[in-house]
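Why predict the complex rather than its parts? Because the way molecules touch one another can change local conformation, and only a joint prediction can capture that. The input here totals 682 residues.
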Amino acid sequence: MDIESVSGNEAALADAVESALRGLGRLEVTRNGDAVVARTMLGRAERIILAGHLDTVPLPTVAGSRGTVPVSWDGKVLYGRGATDMKGGVAVQLAIAATVPEPSKDITFIFYDNEEVAAVKSGLGRLARENRELLDADFGILLEPTNGTVEGGCNGTIRFEATTSGLAAHSARAWMGENAIHKAAPILARLAEYEPATVTVDGLDYRESLNAVKIHGGTAGNVIPDQCVVEINYRFAPDKSPAQAEAHVRELLSGFELVCTDSSAGARPGLNAPAAASFVAAVGREPLPKYGWTDVARLSEMGIPAVNFGPGDPLLAHSDNEHVDADAIRECLAALTRWLG
Amino acid sequence: MDIESVSGNEAALADAVESALRGLGRLEVTRNGDAVVARTMLGRAERIILAGHLDTVPLPTVAGSRGTVPVSWDGKVLYGRGATDMKGGVAVQLAIAATVPEPSKDITFIFYDNEEVAAVKSGLGRLARENRELLDADFGILLEPTNGTVEGGCNGTIRFEATTSGLAAHSARAWMGENAIHKAAPILARLAEYEPATVTVDGLDYRESLNAVKIHGGTAGNVIPDQCVVEINYRFAPDKSPAQAEAHVRELLSGFELVCTDSSAGARPGLNAPAAASFVAAVGREPLPKYGWTDVARLSEMGIPAVNFGPGDPLLAHSDNEHVDADAIRECLAALTRWLG
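Output of the joint prediction:
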């Protein structure tokens, strides 16, 4: 954490990770940009992935915040940018590499860059395009923070802009115009009345949501507005494809001009894989659904069942108060060591 | 029009007007800031006001627009900033001063600054505070553009901000938050359903309107919005005070947080004054109601019945295509000359 690694600036940290892994002398190490892949080559029947991103969101700008680099460490709690998201998880990956020389399954360690920025920059996406053969595995664990519980799959996300059009006029002669903001009333009403579903997928309950996240319209206090734009975000359970999610929203808002601006598929929980079952047993806690989108969706797209499992509270991610308990890191490491021992 | 006179920069034009009026040698001329008041002192039974503002809104920025200074003039149509609003009217004032030496009523010519900006800067307001005695009159004519028709009184205007509050949360866990944009749905629905009244005041029909003019809410595409603000403008007939107009909107939007941000009283048409009746007869057209707010409301507040009457199309005011027909100016001048002759 003392090595600043805001997205796009991961080189120094990737160098340190690569050097540590090569120093162990028993891993096949590949560097791609600022991503590092290290594999045990023990000829085991199963191969699993332990993956984590090296980058963080920008450093906090709040004066006096404890989120700045250098970090603070009192022996129990580690404060600083990236503590939760996800240096704790990366620490577990490195500790497994260093302390479990003879795992029961072959392991592919993946450390990658640019997770916190636009999907097109993703280091994991680049590896999938350029070094797909290095990623072959039966099961994946992404060490994003989950408070030490297995969180399966993730909801998908899709965004729309709903636009209403009118005719500008001076508000003293409003009848010469058409009010685009008034026309947005039924869009907001349908969203407000909508009752989001909870969908059970492979035994886990995925709670959906559909929301207006932004709205803007009008140009001046004395002009009838000729346009109003409502930005809408639908978080949909992984039983649906993005195309099915889009059709659902278009049906709900039929009659309105709707442009899809962005979408990412969800991921089914992947708990049916044999490796997943034994892993869940080793962790010893009931698995939960993951609501936020994570890179398990990317592994899932490659045909690799994957779950989230890591130390730290995901609600602290990106906050000025970001921190992780040392015990949470140790417990996560212990569970993986039991499973791989 | 060749002398740029955007609000706050009227000094050169006020100098030119003052000099022209003093040069006639038969008017009592007073300068106050960039306002000029010139009065005939003929001891007539009645005194009327001919008023107009010297300033314009800022020059057009559209490349190739004909609204720039210097202006264009083909002998029939005068193009340029201020042509309609209201150099045409000011030209009529100056022509009356120059060509009607013995009017049947005493005339108070008022040329004033800062009409196009915040009410607190108004040159007419300043004259009312500092030289109230110069403004005494039985009837006022404001030479704002009305296409040469007498337009009586004006609607009042009042603005509100209606704010809804919620609770921010990540949109992947929307149920942790409360959506402030969704809460605005009934505000928009009530405004959309509202049927504005038409109110007859002193024989003229005033058409009201009530509109959302702006809306904004939300901070990011993945955050449940915690605030939404709807700006509302009510244009109300001059049978109501601003307080009555406010009560009307508060009743319609009861249950919502509503802050009144701005209001201006309307003005009754003032056609009951004896001078008004003879003036309407001289113009020879059916008077109409004025919808937009003008300084007749300010004269009305001082107890001076007043109407709008001037050359040019008010819909061209402030536009990049602002222009006025020379014939419109001549017709307006002819009507006033008939009445004052």
